[in-house]
Design a protein that fits this description.
This protein is mainly α and about 200 residues long. The chain has eight helices and two strands. It has a two-stranded antiparallel sheet with strand order 1-2. It is globular. The relative contact order is 0.14. The structure holds zinc ion (ZN). Zinc ion binds next to helix 6.
Length: about 200
């Protein structure tokens, strides 16, 4: 699935299971960081722009789902994130499954344009080549299923942010989060007033 979908899903789960902003951010990151191995895409675009040659997405194809889409990556990322946590045990027990939720989501919804473009999860890479998991029913990365999931997550995020007083923007900036949430809460109050007759 797309990094945005992973981010929203991870934040919603993190916001329901942690007790402070720092741990919430860390647990959210556990659900997004596996896609850091797709940053070869930036190198691909840079190489193609500089050389003037067609982009073959070499680094992206080569390393995405290779470095951080297996249990070695899960251990590494969890250990890294836990070292910044307030409640270490809780964050460890959340980060590890969150990382795996990312893998499961990729397994069900990350196919390329054709039916043969299945994207498998080599669960022990980069250490071992096996086991390799794939699902024949894997839907397209840009398929309607992923779009619906994303729309539902955005709606849930807006609802929760207005109710709880913080949003997923807190991961990037507390200031932007405060402004965003105050606008959402104003809209929410205005909507409530409209519903009350008279
Ligand atoms: Zn992924």
């Amino acid at each position: 699935m797309s990094p945005i979908t992973h981010f929203l899903a991870s934040w919603i789960i993190a916001s329901a299971t942690t007790t402070n902003s720092r741990d919430r951010k860390l647990v959210t990151l556990a659900g997004v960081l596996p896609d850091a191995d797709g940053l070869g895409l930036v190198a691909d675009v840079a190489v193609s722009t500089i050389s003037g040659k067609e982009n073959t997405f070499y680094y992206y194809q080569q390393y995405h789902h290779y470095w951080l889409h297996g249990w070695p990556g899960a251990i590494l990322v969890t250990a890294l994130l836990v070292s910044f946590a307030r409640h270490r045990w809780r964050v460890a027990l959340l980060c590890f499954p969150m990382f795996h939720l990312h893998l499961v989501c990729d397994l069900i919804g990350s196919r390329g344009p054709t039916l043969g473009d299945l994207w498998p999860i080599a669960f022990s890479e980069p250490l071992f080549r096996r086991p390799v998991f794939f699902w024949k029913g894997q839907w397209r990365l840009d398929g309607w299923q992923n779009r619906i999931i994303c729309v539902v997550l955005v709606a849930a995020e807006l609802f929760l942010a207005a109710r709880r007083g913080y949003s997923c923007l807190e991961v990037f900036s507390q200031k932007a989060d405060a402004v965003f949430v105050s606008v959402l809460q104003k809209w929410r109050t205005a909507l409530k007033r409209q519903k009350v007759p008279g």
